[in-house]
Amino acid sequence: MPARPSLPSLDVAGQLARRARWTPLEIVFWLVAFATIYFLPGRHLILTEIVIWALFALSLDLILGFGGILSLGHAAFFGFGAYAAGLLAKHGIITEPVLALFAAGLVTTLLGFITSFLVLRGSDLTRLMVTLGVALVLREIANRYAELTGGADGLQGITMAPVLGMFRFDLFGRTAYVYSLLVLFVLFLLARRIVNSPFGLSLLAVKGNALRASAIGIPVNWRLVAIYTVAAGYAGVAGGLLTQTTAFASLEVFSFDRSADVLLVLIIGGIGYLYGGLIGAIIFRLMQDWLANITPQYWQFWIGLVLVLIVLIGRDRMAAWFQPIIRLFDTLGGRMRRMGAAPGGGER
Amino acid sequence: MLTILFDGIAYGMLLFVLACGLSVTLGLMNFVNLAHGSFAMAGGYITVVLVNRMGVPFLLGLPLAFLFSAALGALLERALYVHVYAKSHLDQVLFTIGLVFMSVAAVDYTMGSSQQFITIPSVLQGQIDVFGVGVGRYRLLIIGICAALTIALQLVLVRTRFGSRLRAAVDDQRVARGLGINVGAVFGVTFAVGSGLAGLGGALGAEILGLDPVFPLKYMIYFLIVVTVGGTSSITGPFLASILLGIGDVAGKYYVPQLGAFVIYTIMIVVLIWRPQGLFARQSAR
Amino acid sequence: MAYALETIGLEKSFGGIKATNQVSLRIRKGARHALIGPNGAGKTTVINLLSGATRPTAGKILLDGQDITDREPHDRVRLGIARTFQINQLFGDLTAVETLGLAISERGGMGHDWWRVAGRKQTIVDEIGELLGRFGLTDVMGERTATLPYGKQRLLEIALAFACKPRVLLLDEPAAGVPDAERDSILTTVAALPTDVTVLLIEHDMDIVFSFADRISVLVNGELFMEGTPEQVAADPRVKAVYLGEGDNA
Fold this sequence. Notes:
The structure holds three protein chains of three kinds.
Chain A: H1 7-18, H2 24-39, H3 44-64, H4 75-90, H5 97-116, H6 124-144, H7 146-149, H8 174-195, H9 198-208, H10 210-215, H11 220-246, H12 256-269, H13 275-294, H14 299-313, H15 315-321, H16 323-340
Helix pairs in contact in A: 2-8, 3-8, 3-11, 3-12, 3-13, 4-5, 4-6, 4-11, 5-11, 8-11, 9-11, 12-13
Chain B: H1 2-29, H2 36-54, H3 58-79, H4 89-111, E1 127-130, E2 133-136, H5 137-159, H6 161-171, H7 173-178, H8 183-209, H9 215-230, H10 236-255, H11 261-274
Antiparallel strand pairs in B: 1-2
Helix pairs in contact in B: 1-5, 1-6, 1-8, 1-9, 1-10, 2-3, 2-4, 2-8, 2-9, 3-8, 5-6, 6-8, 9-10
Chain C: E1 5-14, E2 17-23, E3 26-27, E4 32-36, H1 43-51, E5 58-63, E6 66-67, H2 73-79, E7 81-83, H3 96-107, H4 122-134, H5 150-163, E8 168-172, H6 180-191, E9 198-202, H7 206-212, E10 215-220, E11 223-228, H8 230-235, H9 237-244
């Protein structure tokens, strides 16, 4: 056995690790994100909303960007998690927020698993309709069982216990923000791990060429079920966070508007690289704020216009505008790595 | 019970007229036009303006609604839609959702958000007696107009040159082009006519379906159900699907009001899982 | 002793047309078996039936004596039969390293591993390196597949099927569409495949067929016209008639 791996082997290992490597841009992103806790103290309410949209969009990225599944009803899981968390808190079943959030995410994951089999068959249009239908069905159920869900008035009378028994939800939203940001960060790390694993790579293969994927032994349908299930759980946690940080849940969480908006959020940021949902959430929420000041009632018009323009200009063309920045950071990162790194191969 | 059947058929035929344009668009260009309902809404609102505010007779307002929506469809098709045909389904969905949002907000801004009613001429109000059953005159008109339109559509499709070109293009676009059929022009005309029919349906249906700015969003799912359950390779498929949907919805809301639309959505999901190509789709050797 | 690959009365009908009619093949382990026939004879349909891309309307498929007729394509790969496609079916956005790494980790049962970072295991890294070398892809290993020249893509196409470590390898016209300059590398690579792998090859190029195959089956209109050694097939006047009746295929 050679003492050092042979040269091509070194490159192979380096190649495979390339996707998983933390780029300097990413590190800067998260440092800034956590810094906002201290540097933007008056903005914690809107920042929490951004974080929730980010997590929701991240979950959509998992099924759209990595699974290739076009869903117009992802709000089904968001809403389910929202109501689950709300009911857990309202009826005192699980009072500690982190535990309740985990539970809400878990039941939503189960819902995702059950419904995942519905999206395996059929064309894009069929999937669109099935996902739309599931969200509509859930909304109807929530509407019908008003004794449980509060119906059109929404789930009221929720009081949130302190996070981990120590951190009370304050009026300025500081606890809510730190809590949400930490949840997002942890789930993001997990998603990053999943996406860079052999499983994640097989998803890219399925999305790229499902025919060949199955021809090299990948059980396509089971992989899609798996990612759909995980994504549903993420969306459920996002919904749960909304309920926990606002102490309220309404039927709107199941609405088509929410499903369409999260799609827009993800598209703005770009699909398939995990940060799209996060960046899109920032831009979307800030844009929403700005437009609401100009035309409070008809901001939906401008959102529609943005969508139309994005498509007409072309998502690829818009991504190309950001290439120079990304490349700059890449070369910087490469230079730093070469200065500090030691040669080596893969682990044994 | 007969009244429910009658109402359901009227409702179904109305849905057919509204949705048939979408069915052909999807079958021809594989284009998912979620904004189809906006053209229906446009037809409804222009009729409101013409009939309520300008005193145009109702029966004249209907063909004008058709023309207005057809013109709107032709304009948007040439100016905007044509750039999106080659794009992915995701892009088509985003694009048409964007159009829906814009149309909903625009109508809300110009016409207000409350539901609009078109003043129906008194001769069409109330019921007449048919074999001892009271049938709504308006609904009778709907059935009459829609039946005539359906027959006309079927004749155009089967008896005219344009119809055969359209059927060829739906069957296999590449081969049709190879035969010298100008698929782009066929599609342009079809899109305009389909939008026009939607507009007519919107005007006709304002009384029954309710006309307000969120109409395209409310009824999007119904049009999609007609198209996916009925398939895109014929007229009869969506027609039967519409009738079934119409009767099912009316009967469902009457007999089990607590479940309401819930039943329709669940049936839709079940059908799509069982037969992804639709209940009536021909098994094409694609 | 079981044949490496055997079909019994395999049939496939599309509507009223029998694309495959009573095809019975028996291929011994380590064989180099070629399937030839005029255009439209149904050769690719046979490969599709063997790989599971299509289900037969009648008949059985046995892999080393095991009935795989009802198995899904990905199951069949696990059981030891892999194929290439006539037109490259690759993952455009992935590199050759990632593509081969995928097949290898799937094979090793690691495809569902969502925790470990792909490519940390040295054994996989080594095997990728070895495959790249064997198929002449080392110089392009880090580039996006979509940017590779067709000949390199074709080599990757075959390498990918080979990475599944199949007992039976189905090659659907491996040299198809490859520019002359790159054909030789394909042919040498195919000829250098290890002898414990059974190879079923579809080809139009008679030079390749006669230099590579030890047994040839001739398929005409979905039926097995005849089968024999290259000499027998070359000598048979009926084969010449069936083939040359429609012109020379390069």
